[in-house]
């Protein structure tokens, strides 16, 4: 880049750009294997509980280490540790039909951003070994400049250091994601412009300066989404949980970036 300015944008992966196979295929298969036909114990729930417990004790790297959860659970239920290969299971299910892009116009939008001078990266809390097969299967691997994962950096969203690691020295920074707790909160705390992208968003808009009817609708929507993430938002407070913009579809992103003054369509 020239002129001392540079543009960098990061995208969350799961439920922002893609629907993965983890909940519907990978975890059920692992649970079935560990259960060995015994349906009396909910091993899916046990795997997710281990994930949640690691998050709650502030160890995100451990939280997203699904192999460690599977191994620990195997010992608990008397199955040989190492009999489950989570990465191999992910790779087997990372196929069209089981993983897919959420938005039809994803690739043209990413290409347009890169042509306009943006450095486009994925910033995901998933481990690389689980996310790379999904990125390759959906064709995203060749459409981004970088992929930053929790095991790469030893940090996870909303830790501001994850955003710093992914966005580098860029002077204009934007993060797009579907979660208020990880994506919005982390971006806001890191001083990064935050775009909440969810198919259920009521409209595409910059959250400042809405007319009263839309402002009310947005507040209700944000409170509902925040509640699903265990974060209370009411009346645009706390500000760290309120995104700078909301969109339902990635096709709306370039116009929203322009409206935010982020030069989506010019490289100057
Ligand atoms: Mg997500």
* Shape type: globular
What is the third-level CATH name, the topology of the largest domain? Rossmann fold
Number of domains: 2
Distance between the termini: 9 Å
Per CATH, the superfamily of the largest domain is HAD superfamily/HAD-like
Overall pLDDT: 93
Radius of gyration: 19 Å
- Decide which structural class fits the backbone: alpha/beta
Question: Which molecules are bound besides the chains?
Answer: magnesium ion
Largest sheet: 7 strands, mixed
Quick summary:
The protein is of the alpha/beta class. The chain is built from twelve helices and nine strands.
Main features:
single chain; 268 residues; alpha/beta; Rossmann fold; 2 domains; seven-stranded mixed β-sheet; two-stranded antiparallel ribbon; 9 strands; globular; binds magnesium ion
Explain this structure to me?
The protein has 268 residues and is an alpha/beta fold. The chain folds into two domains: 173 residues, Rossmann fold, CATH 3.40.50.1000; 72 residues. The chain has twelve helices and nine strands. It has a seven-stranded mixed sheet with strand order 5-4-1-6-7-9-8, sandwiched between helices. A two-stranded antiparallel ribbon has the order 2-3. Helix 5 runs parallel beside helix 7. The termini are close together. The relative contact order is 0.15. Magnesium ion binds next to loops.
